[in-house]
Amino acid sequence: MITDEHKKIYKSKVEAIKKVSASSYFIEIDCGFPVEVKAGQFISIYCDGLTLRRPFSVYSNNNGKIGVLFKERGQGTKYIKSLKENDFIDIMGPVGNGFNIKNKKALLIGAGIGVAPISFLKTKLDEQKIENTFIAGFLNKQEIPNGINADIFCTDDGSYGKEGNVLTGTEKIIEQYKPDIIYACGPLIVLKQVAQIGEKYNIETQIAMEKVMACGIGVCRGCVIDIKKDGKIVNATVCKDGPVFLGSEVVWQ
Ligand SMILES: Cc1cc2nc3c(=O)[nH]c(=O)nc-3n(C[C@H](O)[C@H](O)[C@H](O)COP(=O)(O)OP(=O)(O)OC[C@H]3O[C@@H](n4cnc5c(N)ncnc54)[C@H](O)[C@@H]3O)c2cc1C
Ligand code: FES
Description:
The chain is of the alpha/beta class and 253 residues long. It has four helices and 16 strands. The strands form three sheets. The chain has a seven-stranded antiparallel β-sheet with strand order 4-3-7-1-2-6-5. Strands 11-10-9-8-12-13-16 form a seven-stranded mixed β-sheet, with helices on both faces. Strands 14-15 form a two-stranded antiparallel sheet. A hairpin with a 2-residue loop joins strand 14 (224-229) and strand 15 (232-237). The longest helix has 14 residues, at 188-201. It is globular, with a radius of gyration of 18 Å. The mean pLDDT is 94. The structure holds flavin-adenine dinucleotide and FE2/S2 (inorganic) cluster.
């Protein structure tokens, strides 16, 4: 089946690539023309010789120059890390639904590499003059990528900002700051707790999920999760129906 997403494959060029923390890299990809991207959408990168494209959240978009923040994990990210300025790179996207930005006082929560889409979202909220506070959490100071636009930093070992994980003290912040909406991205355990906090305080939560993906365009159904819809439990694909879901609709394991 040919979908619209199939048509969004660009042979692009690496504009810049650099190490930005102890274990993460920033790559900027020039699509050659302006591209509209919503915060929370992602691109899938073809990694030389590997059958499956690898998905990465969009971290920045400068008139069609798309930035991605990534950590080296396996063969695909090793290949991306090896690219040099002016190398060609094959990307598909932007795909996925993205965050549904609302004109509401927002608390933004990003953990680890999950800061990428949240940082991009903050840029968009600031452009639209929507009040927001962004809390970013990392293992330690060395893991904080240069240029993260967070308002509050937390590190597990206390080497920078507040000591503790990104959710330590979040309830206190909610009680003082009184956000009307929470947007989050990070490990599943963090997202589950964000959803629970949202339910406790009766605040809408939008969370960007990650799931290992194959096609990345809603065809193979390899990335389904259970969600609640109209009193029933149904399947949803993280790549096409998501990656952003309401915390309250996800069936947490
Ligand atoms: C919507 C979405 C957005 C993402 N955004 C980012 C991002 O902004 N920056 C970033 O560094 N990573 C992001 N990821 C994770 C990224 O896709 C994986 O790190 C990457 O595919 C690993 O490829 P690899 O070939 O290097 O590793 P592999 O050899 O394929 O795998 C190495 C390890 O990574 C895990 N892994 C593989 N694919 C995924 C996946 N899709 N999600 C989670 N873990 C995976 C494997 O379980 C394994 O433990 C995102 C994933 C999704 C689904
Ligand atoms: S990865 Fe194929 S449907 Fe999501």
